[in-house]
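note to self: the first set is below, dont mix up w the second
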Amino acid sequence: MRKRLFIVVCLMACIQCGWAQNTVESIRKRYADIKEMITEKTGEEENFNDGATFMQCYKVEASHWLPGTGGHRENITFYFDEKEGKDEVYSSHYLTFATTKYNYSALEYYEEYLYDEDGKIAFIYAFSPYETNEDEGSPNNELSLQIEYRFYFNKGKMMHAVIKTRPVEGNATTPFKVDFEGNKLNEKYREELQRYMDNAEKYRKLFDTLDETTYGY
Protein backbone atom coordinates (compact mmCIF):
# COMPACT_ATOMS: atom_id res chain seq x y z
CA MET A 1 0.00 0.00 0.00
CA ARG A 2 2.80 2.37 0.96
CA LYS A 3 4.65 1.53 -2.24
CA ARG A 4 1.58 2.34 -4.35
CA LEU A 5 1.08 5.61 -2.49
CA PHE A 6 4.73 6.50 -3.05
CA ILE A 7 4.38 5.82 -6.80
CA VAL A 8 1.22 7.96 -7.02
CA VAL A 9 2.91 10.84 -5.21
CA CYS A 10 5.92 10.62 -7.53
CA LEU A 11 3.67 10.60 -10.60
CA MET A 12 1.77 13.63 -9.36
CA ALA A 13 5.05 15.46 -8.70
CA CYS A 14 6.27 14.66 -12.21
CA ILE A 15 3.02 15.87 -13.76
CA GLN A 16 3.13 19.10 -11.76
CA CYS A 17 6.76 19.73 -12.73
CA GLY A 18 5.95 19.09 -16.37
CA TRP A 19 2.91 21.37 -16.20
CA ALA A 20 4.93 24.15 -14.58
CA GLN A 21 7.66 23.86 -17.21
CA ASN A 22 5.09 23.98 -20.01
CA THR A 23 3.54 27.06 -18.45
CA VAL A 24 6.92 28.78 -18.19
CA GLU A 25 7.63 27.90 -21.80
CA SER A 26 4.25 29.22 -22.94
CA ILE A 27 4.93 32.50 -21.11
CA ARG A 28 8.34 32.73 -22.73
CA LYS A 29 6.81 32.19 -26.17
CA ARG A 30 4.11 34.81 -25.61
CA TYR A 31 6.70 37.25 -24.32
CA ALA A 32 8.93 36.64 -27.36
CA ASP A 33 5.97 37.07 -29.73
CA ILE A 34 4.99 40.40 -28.16
CA LYS A 35 8.58 41.68 -28.24
CA GLU A 36 8.89 40.67 -31.89
CA MET A 37 5.60 42.38 -32.76
CA ILE A 38 6.63 45.59 -31.00
CA THR A 39 9.95 45.60 -32.88
CA GLU A 40 8.18 45.07 -36.21
CA LYS A 41 5.49 47.69 -35.62
CA THR A 42 7.63 50.42 -34.14
CA GLY A 43 10.21 49.89 -36.87
CA GLU A 44 7.67 50.94 -39.50
CA GLU A 45 6.09 54.28 -40.23
CA GLU A 46 2.84 54.56 -38.26
CA ASN A 47 -0.28 54.34 -40.41
CA PHE A 48 -3.45 55.29 -38.52
CA ASN A 49 -5.71 53.90 -41.25
CA ASP A 50 -4.17 50.46 -41.37
CA GLY A 51 -4.70 48.25 -38.34
CA ALA A 52 -2.14 45.77 -39.64
CA THR A 53 0.72 48.22 -39.09
CA PHE A 54 -0.67 50.42 -36.31
CA MET A 55 0.52 49.59 -32.78
CA GLN A 56 -2.05 50.35 -30.06
CA CYS A 57 -0.44 51.77 -26.94
CA TYR A 58 -0.48 54.57 -24.39
CA LYS A 59 2.73 56.41 -23.55
CA VAL A 60 3.25 58.37 -20.35
CA GLU A 61 6.26 60.52 -19.49
CA ALA A 62 6.87 62.00 -16.06
CA SER A 63 9.70 64.44 -15.31
CA HIS A 64 10.36 66.03 -11.93
CA TRP A 65 13.06 66.93 -9.42
CA LEU A 66 13.74 64.62 -6.48
CA PRO A 67 15.58 65.91 -3.40
CA GLY A 68 18.94 64.21 -3.03
CA THR A 69 18.96 62.51 -6.44
CA GLY A 70 18.21 65.36 -8.86
CA GLY A 71 16.24 65.10 -12.07
CA HIS A 72 14.02 62.04 -12.41
CA ARG A 73 12.32 60.91 -15.61
CA GLU A 74 10.10 57.89 -16.16
CA ASN A 75 8.74 56.68 -19.48
CA ILE A 76 5.94 54.11 -19.35
CA THR A 77 4.40 52.41 -22.37
CA PHE A 78 1.19 50.38 -22.11
CA TYR A 79 0.41 47.90 -24.91
CA PHE A 80 -3.11 46.56 -25.05
CA ASP A 81 -5.47 44.35 -27.04
CA GLU A 82 -9.22 44.17 -27.63
CA LYS A 83 -11.54 41.82 -25.80
CA GLU A 84 -13.60 39.59 -28.07
CA GLY A 85 -17.10 38.23 -27.75
CA LYS A 86 -18.87 41.36 -26.52
CA ASP A 87 -21.57 43.17 -28.49
CA GLU A 88 -19.85 46.56 -28.49
CA VAL A 89 -19.26 49.14 -31.21
CA TYR A 90 -15.82 49.71 -29.76
CA SER A 91 -14.40 46.59 -28.14
CA SER A 92 -13.13 46.90 -24.58
CA HIS A 93 -9.38 46.88 -24.01
CA TYR A 94 -7.18 44.83 -21.73
CA LEU A 95 -3.55 45.45 -20.84
CA THR A 96 -1.15 42.90 -22.29
CA PHE A 97 2.31 44.37 -21.77
CA ALA A 98 3.88 47.38 -20.05
CA THR A 99 7.43 48.70 -20.06
CA THR A 100 8.99 51.38 -17.90
CA LYS A 101 12.38 53.06 -18.03
CA TYR A 102 13.39 55.47 -15.28
CA ASN A 103 16.43 56.93 -13.58
CA TYR A 104 17.69 57.78 -10.14
CA SER A 105 20.77 60.00 -10.19
CA ALA A 106 22.75 58.75 -13.19
CA LEU A 107 21.48 55.16 -12.96
CA GLU A 108 18.86 53.88 -15.41
CA TYR A 109 16.36 51.17 -14.47
CA TYR A 110 14.19 49.13 -16.82
CA GLU A 111 11.19 46.85 -16.18
CA GLU A 112 8.69 44.83 -18.22
CA TYR A 113 5.30 43.44 -17.15
CA LEU A 114 3.33 40.80 -19.08
CA TYR A 115 -0.36 40.31 -18.18
CA ASP A 116 -2.98 37.67 -18.97
CA GLU A 117 -6.50 38.46 -20.21
CA ASP A 118 -7.82 38.52 -16.64
CA GLY A 119 -5.45 41.35 -15.77
CA LYS A 120 -3.22 39.16 -13.60
CA ILE A 121 0.53 39.41 -13.86
CA ALA A 122 2.13 36.57 -15.86
CA PHE A 123 5.77 37.64 -16.14
CA ILE A 124 8.07 40.34 -14.78
CA TYR A 125 11.51 41.26 -16.08
CA ALA A 126 13.50 43.91 -14.20
CA PHE A 127 17.01 45.27 -14.56
CA SER A 128 18.57 46.97 -11.54
CA PRO A 129 21.84 48.77 -12.41
CA TYR A 130 23.12 49.01 -8.86
CA GLU A 131 22.56 46.97 -5.71
CA THR A 132 24.80 46.42 -2.70
CA ASN A 133 25.54 43.01 -1.30
CA GLU A 134 27.64 41.85 1.62
CA ASP A 135 31.11 40.72 0.62
CA GLU A 136 33.94 40.31 3.13
CA GLY A 137 36.50 40.68 0.36
CA SER A 138 35.31 44.15 -0.71
CA PRO A 139 35.94 47.55 0.91
CA ASN A 140 33.38 48.24 3.65
CA ASN A 141 32.23 44.63 3.18
CA GLU A 142 30.00 45.71 0.26
CA LEU A 143 29.90 44.53 -3.33
CA SER A 144 28.16 46.51 -6.09
CA LEU A 145 25.99 44.37 -8.37
CA GLN A 146 23.79 44.64 -11.40
CA ILE A 147 20.78 42.32 -11.18
CA GLU A 148 18.32 40.84 -13.66
CA TYR A 149 15.06 39.50 -12.26
CA ARG A 150 12.71 37.15 -14.11
CA PHE A 151 9.53 36.11 -12.31
CA TYR A 152 6.93 33.75 -13.84
CA PHE A 153 3.38 33.58 -12.52
CA ASN A 154 0.32 31.37 -12.79
CA LYS A 155 -2.95 33.16 -11.98
CA GLY A 156 -0.99 35.89 -10.24
CA LYS A 157 1.09 33.56 -8.04
CA MET A 158 4.82 33.12 -8.61
CA MET A 159 5.73 29.66 -9.83
CA HIS A 160 9.31 30.15 -11.05
CA ALA A 161 12.11 32.70 -10.78
CA VAL A 162 15.50 33.24 -12.40
CA ILE A 163 17.78 35.88 -10.87
CA LYS A 164 21.17 36.76 -12.36
CA THR A 165 23.88 39.05 -11.05
CA ARG A 166 27.19 40.50 -12.14
CA PRO A 167 29.67 42.77 -10.35
CA VAL A 168 29.88 46.46 -11.21
CA GLU A 169 33.49 47.35 -11.93
CA GLY A 170 33.74 50.69 -13.70
CA ASN A 171 32.78 50.35 -17.36
CA ALA A 172 33.82 46.70 -17.60
CA THR A 173 31.07 44.31 -18.66
CA THR A 174 31.12 40.73 -17.45
CA PRO A 175 28.55 37.98 -18.15
CA PHE A 176 25.59 37.61 -15.82
CA LYS A 177 25.64 34.52 -13.60
CA VAL A 178 22.62 32.75 -12.14
CA ASP A 179 22.34 33.54 -8.44
CA PHE A 180 18.97 31.83 -7.95
CA GLU A 181 16.63 29.63 -9.97
CA GLY A 182 13.63 27.75 -8.63
CA ASN A 183 9.97 27.88 -7.66
CA LYS A 184 10.39 28.80 -3.98
CA LEU A 185 12.06 32.16 -3.62
CA ASN A 186 14.56 32.51 -0.80
CA GLU A 187 14.34 35.25 1.82
CA LYS A 188 17.02 37.28 0.07
CA TYR A 189 14.75 38.27 -2.82
CA ARG A 190 11.22 38.13 -1.40
CA GLU A 191 11.08 41.84 -0.69
CA GLU A 192 12.05 42.64 -4.28
CA LEU A 193 9.44 40.22 -5.61
CA GLN A 194 6.72 41.96 -3.60
CA ARG A 195 7.88 45.37 -4.76
CA TYR A 196 7.67 44.37 -8.42
CA MET A 197 4.28 42.71 -7.90
CA ASP A 198 3.04 45.95 -6.31
CA ASN A 199 4.38 47.83 -9.32
CA ALA A 200 2.55 45.47 -11.66
CA GLU A 201 -0.75 46.23 -9.92
CA LYS A 202 0.03 49.95 -9.87
CA TYR A 203 0.66 50.03 -13.63
CA ARG A 204 -2.46 47.99 -14.35
CA LYS A 205 -4.58 50.49 -12.41
CA LEU A 206 -2.90 53.38 -14.21
CA PHE A 207 -3.70 51.75 -17.55
CA ASP A 208 -7.35 51.29 -16.55
CA THR A 209 -7.56 54.99 -15.65
CA LEU A 210 -5.95 56.06 -18.93
CA ASP A 211 -8.15 53.75 -20.96
CA GLU A 212 -11.32 54.96 -19.27
CA THR A 213 -10.29 58.58 -19.83
CA THR A 214 -9.29 58.29 -23.50
CA TYR A 215 -11.53 55.44 -24.65
CA GLY A 216 -14.67 55.82 -22.52
CA TYR A 217 -17.23 55.69 -25.32
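second set (the one i keep forgetting abt)
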Amino acid sequence: MNFRFATAILSVFLLSTFAKAQYTVHKMVSVGYTYQNQSFGEVGGKLLFLKNDDVIYRLGASALMGSANSQFAIMPKLQADVLLNFQKDVDFYHSYYFLMGAEGTNKYVAPKIGVSLFGILDLTGGYAFPIGDLNGKEMKGLNVNFTLNIPTVFIHDMFK
Protein backbone atom coordinates (compact mmCIF):
# COMPACT_ATOMS: atom_id res chain seq x y z
CA MET A 1 0.00 0.00 0.00
CA ASN A 2 2.78 2.47 0.88
CA PHE A 3 4.67 1.62 -2.31
CA ARG A 4 1.58 2.35 -4.44
CA PHE A 5 1.00 5.64 -2.67
CA ALA A 6 4.63 6.72 -3.08
CA THR A 7 4.58 5.72 -6.78
CA ALA A 8 1.36 7.66 -7.37
CA ILE A 9 2.74 10.82 -5.69
CA LEU A 10 6.02 10.54 -7.60
CA SER A 11 4.16 10.03 -10.91
CA VAL A 12 1.96 13.09 -10.32
CA PHE A 13 5.03 15.15 -9.45
CA LEU A 14 6.97 14.03 -12.54
CA LEU A 15 4.01 14.49 -14.89
CA SER A 16 3.30 17.97 -13.49
CA THR A 17 6.83 19.07 -14.39
CA PHE A 18 6.05 18.35 -18.06
CA ALA A 19 2.77 20.29 -18.00
CA LYS A 20 3.10 23.89 -19.14
CA ALA A 21 0.85 26.69 -17.96
CA GLN A 22 -0.51 29.00 -20.63
CA TYR A 23 0.38 32.21 -18.79
CA THR A 24 2.22 35.02 -20.52
CA VAL A 25 4.60 37.08 -18.41
CA HIS A 26 5.05 40.83 -18.83
CA LYS A 27 7.72 42.89 -17.07
CA MET A 28 6.86 46.28 -15.60
CA VAL A 29 8.74 49.12 -13.93
CA SER A 30 6.82 50.64 -11.02
CA VAL A 31 7.10 54.06 -9.39
CA GLY A 32 4.81 55.37 -6.72
CA TYR A 33 3.97 56.87 -3.37
CA THR A 34 3.29 55.02 -0.13
CA TYR A 35 1.95 56.45 3.10
CA GLN A 36 2.75 54.32 6.14
CA ASN A 37 2.96 56.67 9.16
CA GLN A 38 5.42 58.56 6.93
CA SER A 39 5.62 59.39 3.23
CA PHE A 40 7.78 57.10 1.09
CA GLY A 41 8.71 57.09 -2.58
CA GLU A 42 8.69 53.70 -4.26
CA VAL A 43 10.78 52.38 -7.17
CA GLY A 44 10.82 48.77 -8.31
CA GLY A 45 9.68 46.14 -10.77
CA LYS A 46 6.77 43.76 -11.23
CA LEU A 47 5.95 40.64 -13.18
CA LEU A 48 2.42 40.40 -14.57
CA PHE A 49 1.08 36.88 -15.20
CA LEU A 50 -1.78 36.86 -17.71
CA LYS A 51 -3.87 33.97 -18.99
CA ASN A 52 -7.02 35.92 -19.85
CA ASP A 53 -8.26 39.40 -19.02
CA ASP A 54 -10.57 38.32 -16.18
CA VAL A 55 -7.90 37.44 -13.60
CA ILE A 56 -4.39 38.90 -13.56
CA TYR A 57 -1.64 38.00 -11.10
CA ARG A 58 1.28 40.30 -10.24
CA LEU A 59 4.42 39.80 -8.18
CA GLY A 60 6.70 42.69 -7.38
CA ALA A 61 9.76 43.87 -5.51
CA SER A 62 10.64 47.47 -4.80
CA ALA A 63 12.42 49.84 -2.45
CA LEU A 64 10.58 52.33 -0.24
CA MET A 65 12.67 55.45 0.37
CA GLY A 66 11.82 58.23 2.79
CA SER A 67 12.47 59.90 6.09
CA ALA A 68 11.57 58.45 9.49
CA ASN A 69 12.33 60.49 12.61
CA SER A 70 14.43 62.89 10.52
CA GLN A 71 16.68 60.11 9.20
CA PHE A 72 16.73 58.79 5.62
CA ALA A 73 15.55 55.18 5.43
CA ILE A 74 15.20 52.52 2.73
CA MET A 75 12.96 49.47 3.15
CA PRO A 76 12.78 46.53 0.72
CA LYS A 77 9.20 45.60 -0.21
CA LEU A 78 7.70 42.43 -1.69
CA GLN A 79 4.12 42.32 -2.90
CA ALA A 80 1.60 40.03 -4.53
CA ASP A 81 -1.63 41.20 -6.18
CA VAL A 82 -4.65 39.65 -7.86
CA LEU A 83 -6.63 41.86 -10.26
CA LEU A 84 -10.24 40.82 -11.00
CA ASN A 85 -12.79 41.98 -13.57
CA PHE A 86 -15.48 39.61 -14.82
CA GLN A 87 -17.48 42.25 -16.71
CA LYS A 88 -18.58 41.13 -20.18
CA ASP A 89 -20.04 42.86 -23.26
CA VAL A 90 -18.82 46.40 -22.68
CA ASP A 91 -17.41 48.84 -25.23
CA PHE A 92 -14.25 49.71 -23.33
CA TYR A 93 -13.32 46.16 -22.31
CA HIS A 94 -11.73 45.80 -18.88
CA SER A 95 -10.75 49.38 -18.21
CA TYR A 96 -10.70 48.89 -14.44
CA TYR A 97 -9.95 46.02 -12.08
CA PHE A 98 -10.70 45.26 -8.44
CA LEU A 99 -7.34 44.69 -6.76
CA MET A 100 -6.57 42.66 -3.66
CA GLY A 101 -3.20 41.64 -2.35
CA ALA A 102 -0.58 41.93 0.32
CA GLU A 103 2.75 43.64 0.75
CA GLY A 104 5.52 43.09 3.22
CA THR A 105 8.71 44.79 4.27
CA ASN A 106 11.20 44.06 7.01
CA LYS A 107 9.17 46.48 9.22
CA TYR A 108 5.49 45.66 8.47
CA VAL A 109 3.03 43.38 6.65
CA ALA A 110 -0.11 44.87 5.08
CA PRO A 111 -3.08 43.26 3.33
CA LYS A 112 -4.64 45.69 0.85
CA ILE A 113 -7.58 46.27 -1.50
CA GLY A 114 -8.16 48.86 -4.18
CA VAL A 115 -8.72 49.58 -7.85
CA SER A 116 -6.47 49.53 -10.89
CA LEU A 117 -7.03 51.42 -14.11
CA PHE A 118 -5.96 49.20 -17.05
CA GLY A 119 -3.61 47.38 -14.63
CA ILE A 120 -1.29 50.38 -14.96
CA LEU A 121 -2.46 52.95 -12.40
CA ASP A 122 -3.19 51.54 -8.91
CA LEU A 123 -4.83 53.09 -5.85
CA THR A 124 -4.86 50.80 -2.83
CA GLY A 125 -5.41 50.98 0.89
CA GLY A 126 -4.95 48.62 3.80
CA TYR A 127 -3.81 48.23 7.36
CA ALA A 128 -0.20 47.50 8.32
CA PHE A 129 0.79 45.18 11.13
CA PRO A 130 4.23 46.01 12.56
CA ILE A 131 7.14 43.59 12.60
CA GLY A 132 9.77 46.01 13.85
CA ASP A 133 10.45 49.72 14.06
CA LEU A 134 12.12 52.08 11.59
CA ASN A 135 14.51 54.54 13.25
CA GLY A 136 12.46 54.27 16.45
CA LYS A 137 9.07 54.66 14.71
CA GLU A 138 6.60 51.77 14.61
CA MET A 139 5.11 51.16 11.14
CA LYS A 140 1.47 50.34 11.88
CA GLY A 141 -1.92 51.65 10.91
CA LEU A 142 -3.38 53.00 7.69
CA ASN A 143 -1.47 52.10 4.53
CA VAL A 144 -2.17 53.98 1.26
CA ASN A 145 -0.42 53.31 -2.07
CA PHE A 146 -0.54 55.15 -5.40
CA THR A 147 1.51 53.35 -8.06
CA LEU A 148 2.21 53.77 -11.77
CA ASN A 149 3.22 50.50 -13.51
CA ILE A 150 4.96 51.08 -16.84
CA PRO A 151 5.37 48.04 -19.14
CA THR A 152 8.96 47.63 -20.32
CA VAL A 153 7.71 47.05 -23.87
CA PHE A 154 6.40 50.62 -23.85
CA ILE A 155 9.75 51.95 -22.63
CA HIS A 156 11.59 49.96 -25.31
CA ASP A 157 9.30 51.19 -28.09
CA MET A 158 9.55 54.79 -26.88
CA PHE A 159 13.33 54.88 -27.47
CA LYS A 160 13.29 53.23 -30.93
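remember for set 2: The first helix runs from residue 2 to 18.
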